[in-house]
């Protein structure tokens, strides 16, 4: 279980040791990011409709998926931090298994994206794995025009945040609670204390959108 009292120093990553084994590290990126599909294209799409070619849009829909997926480099850095905290191997001892980098289990979370000063959208993520969240918003004429302009620039001022908590444990609290009980109750009390800990998190950062890649996801409908 994630040891809330033992964060690990990993640049660009929130990482924690495991309470029971040195073979596991729990990790999340410091900031949310736009999800990328199997085709390598960011998962954001814009639909605009207008009456007559060349006229301003009269409305539309914007949808995007954000998640907390670790990049390969971030995952490798977290694994190295796990290796560094292991005790030195004894001479002749068998080779230790690779450090497993795991995603914390979310208890609850909300997601909010500020796309423009006048346009924000919120949603509830999956709470599983990379904790992906699909956000969608209907656009009136004014917002459609503003989004059309921002789209061409890759939404340079957009931000996204995940606000929630993950399951964790606190070894010091568990040990202190167990010490007050009869010896045969120590394990039971320690386990109960560990299971009750939640780690609050607020992950916020810019929404990075490669301008060249998102153009493929825009659709204009002329009525």
In short:
The protein is α+β, with helices and mostly antiparallel strands.
Description:
- The strands form 3 sheets. Strands 4, 5, 6, 10 and 13 form a 5-stranded mixed beta sheet that branches.
- The protein contains 5 helices and 13 strands.
- The longest helix has 13 residues, at 72-84.
- The chain starts with a strand and ends with a strand.
- With 223 residues, the protein is an alpha+beta fold.
- The relative contact order is 0.23.
Give the topology, please.
Elements (H helix, E strand, L loop, with lengths): L1 E9 L2 E6 L5 E6 L3 E2 L9 E7 L8 E9 L4 H13 L15 E3 L3 E11 L2 E5 L9 E7 L1 H13 L5 E10 L2 H9 L6 H10 L1 E10 L4 H4 L3 E5 L1
Helix pairs in contact: 3-4
Helicity range = 10-25%
SSE order: EEEEEEHEEEEHEHHEHE
How much of the sequence is in beta strands? 35-45%
- Unreliable stretches: 174-190
Largest sheet: 5 strands, mixed
Class by SSE composition: alpha+beta
> How many β strands by DSSP?
13
Q: What general outline do the C-alpha atoms trace?
A: elongated
The gyration radius over C-alpha positions equals: 23 Å
Number of helices: 5
Distance between the termini: 56 Å
What is the arithmetic mean of pLDDT? 85
List keywords for this structure.
40% strand, elongated, alpha+beta, 223 residues
């Amino acid at each position: 279980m994630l040891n809330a009292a033992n964060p690990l120093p990993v640049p660009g990553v929130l990482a924690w040791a495991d309470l029971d084994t040195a073979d596991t590290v729990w990790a999340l990126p410091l900031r949310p990011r736009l999800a990328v599909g199997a085709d390598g294209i960011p998962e954001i799409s814009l639909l605009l409709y207008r009456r007559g070619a060349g006229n301003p849009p009269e409305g539309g829909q914007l949808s995007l998926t954000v998640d907390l997926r670790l990049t390969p480099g971030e995952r490798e850095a977290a694994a190295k931090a796990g290796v560094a905290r292991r005790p030195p191997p004894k001479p002749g001892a068998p080779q230790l298994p690779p450090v497993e980098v795991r995603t914390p289990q979310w208890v609850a979370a909300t997601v909010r994206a500020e796309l423009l000063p006048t346009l924000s959208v919120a949603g509830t993520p999956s709470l599983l794995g990379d904790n992906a969240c699909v956000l969608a918003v209907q656009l009136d004429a004014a917002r459609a025009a503003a989004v059309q302009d921002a789209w061409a620039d890759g939404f340079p001022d957009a931000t996204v945040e995940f606000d929630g908590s993950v399951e964790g444990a606190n070894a010091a609290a568990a040990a202190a609670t167990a010490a007050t009980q009869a010896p045969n109750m120590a394990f039971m009390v320690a386990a109960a204390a560990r299971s009750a800990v939640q780690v609050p998190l607020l992950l916020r950062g810019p929404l990075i959108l490669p301008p060249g890649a998102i153009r493929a996801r825009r659709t204009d409908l002329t009525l």
